C-alpha cells in the first residue's frame, strides 16, 4: 500500500511590503497521509548590490525551509523511536 505525503511551500517577498528590505521567506508544510503536519522555515536576504532576481531568493529560501523541515522530521522520528525503545535515540543526518 502506497502512502502520499504532500509538501507545500509558501514564499513571501518582504520587498512587496518594504522596498528597502530585500528579503524572501519560505514556509514549508509537510502533511502526511495520516494528517500529521510539520513545518519548516527559511529565508534569504539579497545583498543590495546584487542584481534583483527574485527567483534566486525564492530558491534559496525554499531550500532552507526544506532543510529545516527535514531536520524537524528527523527529530520527530528520533523521538518516536525513543518512545518505543525506552531510551534516547539520536539519528544521524
UniProtKB/TrEMBL annotation:
Residue ranges of the region described as Disordered: 24-55
Domain of life: Bacteria
One Pfam family here: Rv2632c-like
InterPro entries in alphabetical order: Rv2632c-like (IPR015057), Rv2632c-like_sf (IPR038070)
Entry-linked SUPFAM superfamilies: Rv2632c-like (SSF143212)
Low complexity: compositionally biased ranges: 24-38
Protein name: Uncharacterized protein DUF1876
Taxonomic source organism: Georgenia muralis
Amino acid at each position: 500500500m502506497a502512502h502520499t505525503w504532500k509538501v507545500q511551500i509558501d514564499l513571501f517577498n518582504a520587498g512587496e511590503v518594504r522596498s528597502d528590505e530585500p528579503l524572501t521567506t519560505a514556509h514549508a508544510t509537510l502533511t502526511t497521509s495520516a494528517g500529521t503536519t510539520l513545518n519548516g522555515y527559511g529565508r534569504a536576504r539579497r545583498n543590495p548590490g546584487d542584481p534583483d532576481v527574485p527567483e534566486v531568493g525564492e530558491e534559496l529560501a525554499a531550500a532552507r525551509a526544506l532543510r529545516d523541515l527535514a531536520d524537524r522530521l528527523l527529530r520527530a522520528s528520533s523521538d518516536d523511536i525513543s518512545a518505543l525503545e525506552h531510551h534516547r535515540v539520536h539519528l544521524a543526518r
